[in-house]
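User: Please run a holo structure prediction.
Assistant: Happy to. Please share the sequence and the ligand.
User: Here you go; the ligand is uridine-diphosphate-N-acetylglucosamine.
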Amino acid sequence: MNIVILAAGQGKRMHSNLPKVLHPIAGKPLAQHVIDTARRLDPEKLIVVYGHGGEIVRSMLQADDIAWAEQAQQLGTGHAVAQAVSQLGTAGQTLVLYGDVPLTTVNTLKRLLQAGKDGLSVLTVNLDNPTGYGRIVRDAAGNMVSIVEEKDATTEQKAIREVNTGIMAIPTARLGEWLGKLKNDNAQGEYYLTDIVALAVAEGLPVRTAQPEGEWEVLGVNSKVQLAELERQHQRNLADQLLVAGVRLADPARIDVRGELSHGRDVSIDVGCVFEGKVELGDAVEVGPYCVLKNVKVGAGTRIAAFCHFEDAVIGPDGVLGPYARLRPGTELGPEVHIGNFVEVKKSRIAAQSKANHLAYIGDAEIGQRVNVGAGTITCNYDGANKHLTVIEDDVFIGSDTQLVAPVRVGRGATLGAGTTLTKDAPPETLTVSRAKQLSLAGWQRPQKVKK
Ligand code: UD1
Ligand code: CA
């Protein structure tokens, strides 16, 4: 079996410099959805027909298992498939997909291929409003005889509500000859792929149809309006999958998954969260409202409060995070770590039961167990040219508003007094304070405004 994906169209109505098939649904180009679905059918050949924005399309979708066919001029869907035909061989079926129809399921395509096993098959759908689509014309016995395009249809044919989705399975052995016979003497002056149906019928080959389970599977994108509609449909589908799998969603209409979200049991997700890349949520993880998690692994039982932003981080079990926490790339938190409001952590490891609950910056640090990082603590990791490491050993207590000028080490069990600016290592089990001694000046007067 071969798959040909048509992706040469410009998409004028997108009003964009980006070729249509590269516009994203769930953070992934439309055509990439189609390619990923195609791969799951394990084709011998996977060919993308490209034209508009050729080089960008190729470089964005590039992969070892994709072959390319250029269609320099868009002369119709039949002409588009003809550009790929020399790469197809002569055996099996050729499945034609559209690069701007992203949500067709593998199951539907398998049923279509099955229906076309001994002939040709077309994926069709009944629409309340069939305007603009090719109509499926059947004979008195109900057998499909041809597809007629809207612009070429009679009034009678226009009343037909069963339409061509464009997705077809064609016997590869016949394809080249049929495409060679196509003429463009129609209303649009194009070489219609759809005309091969009548050719198959004329040869007495069985022509069958299959239908998708949901209409959204065959919806294409021609405008930003349709792009937005399909995004919501796709997100709703993903949300339903999560619900079915046992995730509690405060509102299935208010979640966005732009990647792979995996989860354990009894996970709950509040409204407005965005999951990007690969996100893993362990058992009983709670994600509060309006969090953004990108490439994050969260251990079981961790609670994330509202408005957190985490990227490329690993979070241990039973953590307590946020609200307003930011974890940047390279953050690794052990079990039962607390990261509170307005705390930023970057490229740092924080071991079990340590806490930084308020207003801190922890960058390029290694923090041991049971450490308490006071409010306003800052690791001064950058000297303007290079980054340096801060090491804080187990059971350290860091007073509020402390600066740790890296490279620096705080020994096990040490205490740093509030307001300390630490420029040298602090010895273990000792109080280190760097601030000036407190003075109280009796009789000191506040300055007075000078009267003019
Ligand atoms: C096509 C079908 C129509 C069907 C409809 C479903 C034909 C003649 N008509 O019509 O029966 O109901 O799709 O949406 O096939 N493309 C190319 N090169 C071309 C022309 C098109 O790559 O020269 C690609 C487009 O990028 C798009 C797809 O093929 O992905 C369909 O093209 P489009 O112009 O939208 O076809 P329609 O006229 O809508
Ligand atoms: Ca179309």
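The first strand starts at residue 2 and ends at 7.
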